[in-house]
Amino acid sequence: MEREISPEAPPTRTRLLPRGPNEERKPGDPGGPGAEAEAAEMGTYKCCIFFTRRFAPPDATTPEDVRTLFSRFSGGTPYMGVDELRRYLAATGELDGDGGMDAAERIVDRFLQGRSRTPRFGRPALTVDDFHNFLFSEDLNPPIRQSKVHHDMNAPLSHYFIYTGHNSYLTGNQLSSDCSDAPIIKALQIGVRVIELDMWPNSSKDDIDILHGRTLTAPVSLLKCLTSIKEYAFVASPYPVIITLEDHLTSDLQAKVAKMVLEVFGDILYYPESKHLQEFPSPEALKGRVILSTKPPKEYLEAKGGTMKDRDIEPKFSKGENEESAWGIEVPDIQDELQDANKVIGSKLSKTFLPFFSYIIFMSRFTNHHQDDMSYPERGVDEDDEQIVRKNAPLEYKHLITIKAGKPKGSLVDALNSDPEKVRRLSLSEQELAKVAACHGPKIVSFTQRNLLRIYPKGTRFNSSNYNPFLGWVHGAQMVAFNMQGYGRALWLMNGFYKANGGCGYVKKPDFLMQTCPDGKVFDPTADLPVKKTLKCTWAMVGSRILSRHISIHIPLQIFMQRWA
């Protein structure tokens, strides 16, 4: 027997014998009253190729402790009335004042209206299943409802994890998909606060295109992207939007960008009066503002048969990274990543290229350079180190940059030294983070207490897959950049993480990541710390009617907990 499970709809009993021509159709029967509504909650599977059968997953039984609680407040009766529910809410501290009776009546009415079959008895009351559903409702469970902003938003930006996108303009893969403002709009609508734009001269060299450089992606105009950002910047959150610009422009085009940005954003564009910031402003102070982040203006190099910097490319895919696994692989453990990084520190990249990548390299006329893994130069698309700082760069363009992405010389470890006179942003690839975190974790934590650290996906994630965000978060990295147009467990973790604090896109870092001991030591993510508290959790499977409102009933349950919890 061949079975094919369809997730589109939930198995009722299937009638095996034909119905007579005069037989009355009953509720729940195919074509009967309410059949369409019930079918919407049904699943189907194919039987013997030709036949389709429906099924409905049964609701889980009510846990015994819930039944005991219900019996206690209902006085041992099978129903809990408005007065009994009010007493329960008052006893648990959910109600204050004289409005308890009205609130209890509203709760009872809501559950009776949502019930498919309402029992006929004298007074409105809840059954034990209704009470069970109420305990798992959004009224009593802040994690599954839209919470309000409750973190202190008056600390500097470096004190927050910030919802960050990578190559925000791409609609699909990193090599050949279209560029559009649609992914930018979608990202802003879910609360993303950092939008990345790669700026390149257009074909006639008189305007600016947004595209993934040296690939086959189709461009979109900078003006269109900026206009969409202004329109949708604050639909999901009032807190600042940061635009990270990857600058590949000539000085005249940089001046055009400055004029365009000022015209589009006007008064909502924030830029400092001083040349360097000694401390970043707070999200509260920047409410409703847009700020720019990029490196100081560089000279644009045209590569006519010469060398242009290749992206930080691995010569081969990581183990198990193919089209299928990239979208749905398990999120790796932090310790495993650190151990893997330890094995490759000091080694050099192989010079064997993928045939497909060789074709892209040939078409794009750029060469690949390989240096020591711990060397800071050759950073990737985010760090075009071959460009030379221009002395005659437009003053307007320089002045508009609030978060400067500095590039100190020397090793990667030296790049993590903090300057007491100014703050800056540093960008690392996911591999570079793993390598430096394996030996210099506290140094990263110390750097992120005042400065911003951005982590971006490695160059071989052609299909816009993502990586483990926890490695960056546990080291204090504020901008863990993700491909928002991707899919999979890592992106689910990212989206779930930023549901916190009202979904505003800013989550305050835990205090221990911001603390420095009197002896100068900071938190070490790799240290073995004593257990301070052991949590005991009791899990109860809720009914599919509750579960389906928040996650698919066909997805296996997985629990993720922060190491510092």
Automatic annotation (TrEMBL):
Keyword RNA-binding: no
Membrane topology: Peripheral membrane protein
Enzyme Commission number, as recorded: 3.1.4.11
Cell location: Cell membrane
Region (Disordered): 1-37
Gene3D superfamilies membership: Phosphatidylinositol (PI) phosphodiesterase
One CC-aspect GO term: plasma membrane
Residue span(s) of domain PI-PLC Y-box: 427-513
Name the UniProt record assigns to this protein: Phosphoinositide phospholipase C
Gene Ontology molecular function terms on file: phosphatidylinositol-4,5-bisphosphate phospholipase C activity
Chemical reaction(s) catalysed: a 1,2-diacyl-sn-glycero-3-phospho-(1D-myo-inositol-4,5-bisphosphate) + H2O = 1D-myo-inositol 1,4,5-trisphosphate + a 1,2-diacyl-sn-glycerol + H(+)
Alphabetized PROSITE patterns for the sequence: PIPLC_X_DOMAIN (PS50007), PIPLC_Y_DOMAIN (PS50008)
Keywords carried by this UniProt record: Hydrolase, Lipid degradation, Lipid metabolism
Family matches, as InterPro entries: EF-hand-dom_pair (IPR011992), PI-PLC_fam (IPR001192), PLC-like_Pdiesterase_TIM-brl (IPR017946), PLipase_C_PInositol-sp_X_dom (IPR000909), PLipase_C_Pinositol-sp_Y (IPR001711)
SUPFAM superfamilies linked: EF-hand, PLC-like phosphodiesterases
GO biological process, alphabetically ordered: intracellular signal transduction; lipid catabolic process
